[in-house]
From TrEMBL:
Signal peptide: none annotated. Belongs to the binding-protein-dependent transport system permease family. This is ABC transmembrane type-1 domain-containing protein. InterPro entries: ABC_transporter_permease, MetI-like, MetI-like_sf.
């Protein structure tokens, strides 16, 4: 084959490769444009706003450096919102993870009506946040709500006042959050359980292992990657919580359930202080990043110990 023919073949391959790349990029371009407009550019702009003073009007932005960060860290409401977010995460992450795993293990067996039970536990996740909040607020109604009526029936004369109590409002929000999201993560665990070879359980049965031993020494270790994924997603979700709190309590009573995102929302769209609001968003980003990195390091150590 002559050199001209070789060049022609090489040029044809290059053209086909370029055409293939163009087709591939054309498929991801709409999503990339949407991501850039609605996520990437606003995130970059929030970094800029965090060192600016601006109320969203036609008044030019004023560079203030780290003054916005000093302002929010000196604000007791910001410190309270940060603490409430941490408490909310501690109250919801592990219970949701554990309940989702247990439900998945229970619903992984072949029992009659299994599809109905799986659907019933998953349904709260796809239900509207507004509807869920409204119904649970009715159930938690302190004077004649069904939950408190039941508590009185079993002998608790002074049941909690739930969403109107500064001591119990966050507990009520956490209960609803666990109920709503454990079904979704149950599906994630169910998918992971399908990937565990049945031969492992058969070998364990031959060795005389009972159900608890199979769960402890086979199921839980084999679910380690999934557990890590669920832990990361739940942690990020809890630190980003807004809608559930906004619908059920609005951050109250007082500021008892105000989380970081609620604080950022109030600063930006109630008080029109975009600088402190953006500074709060940067702090939220840093907190989630640090927690995620710690979890990554813990997962590496955990995986190493399990091997």
């Amino acid at each position: 084959m002559s050199s001209n023919e070789n060049q022609a073949v090489a040029k044809g391959k290059k053209n086909r490769r370029i055409r293939s790349n163009v087709i591939g990029y054309s498929f991801i371009l709409p999503n990339l444009i949407g991501y850039s407009i609605f996520v990437f550019i606003p995130v970059c702009f929030s970094f800029v706003l965090s060192v600016m003073k601006w109320d969203g009007s036609q008044i030019p932005m004023e560079f203030v450096g780290l003054q916005n960060f000093a302002q929010i860290f000196g604000d007791r409401f910001f410190r309270g919102a940060l603490w409430h977010t941490v408490v909310y995460a501690l109250m919801t992450v592990l219970p949701t993870l554990v309940l989702a795993m247990l439900l998945a293990v229970l619903l992984n067996s072949k029992i009659k009506g299994i599809a109905f039970y799986r659907t019933a536990f998953f349904f709260p996740y796809i239900a509207s946040i507004v509807a869920v909040g409204a119904v649970w607020n009715m159930l938690f109604q302190p004077d004649f709500g069904p939950i408190n009526e039941f508590l009185k029936l079993i002998g608790i004369s002074n049941p909690p006042r739930w969403v109107v109590s500064t001591d119990w409002a966050m507990v009520a929000v956490a209960i609803v959050t666990i109920w709503k999201y454990m079904g979704y993560y149950m599906i994630v665990y169910l998918a992971a359980l399908q990937g565990i070879s049945s031969s492992l359980y058969e070998a364990a049965s031959i060795d005389g292992a009972n159900g608890w031993q199979k769960l402890r020494y086979i199921t839980i270790p084999m679910l380690t990657p999934t557990t890590f994924f669920v832990l990361i997603m739940l942690t990020i979700q809890c630190f980003k919580v807004f809608d559930m709190v906004y619908v059920m309590t609005g951050g109250g009573p007082g500021n008892a359930t105000q989380t970081l995102v609620n604080y950022i929302y109030d600063k930006a769209f109630v008080n029109w202080q975009f600088g402190p609001a953006s500074a709060g968003a940067i702090v939220l980003f840093a907190v989630v990043l640090v927690i995620t990195l710690i979890q990554f390091q813990g997962e590496k150590k955990w995986s190493k110990d399990m091997m």
